[in-house]
Design brief:
The protein has helices at 2-15, 19-43, 49-75. It is mostly helical.
Length: 76
């Protein structure tokens, strides 16, 4: 358990400088989701699970791009 805790702390310390960027990407993606839901309701369209799935995929890809860019800059 102590080794796992040390590993998680190490990972957290590596990504600490990019934390604000990751949070910003998440907030902007949620804002995009909310505005999309509002637009769908205004136009009378249904909100589908496939639309929400696209948002989850988009958020994951954006976060991975930020993390990979950060790691590339730091360790290459």
């Amino acid at each position: 358990m102590q080794k796992l805790s040390a590993l998680l702390m190490s990972v957290a310390l590596v990504f600490a400088p990019v934390k604000a960027t990751l949070i910003t990407v998440m907030v902007l993606t949620v804002a995009d989701l909310i505005s999309g839901i509002m637009a769908s309701r205004k136009e009378g369209k249904k909100i589908t699970s496939s639309g929400l799935k696209r948002t989850i995929i988009k958020t994951t890809v954006y976060e991975l791009v930020v993390v990979l860019g950060f790691l590339t800059e730091q360790f290459m």
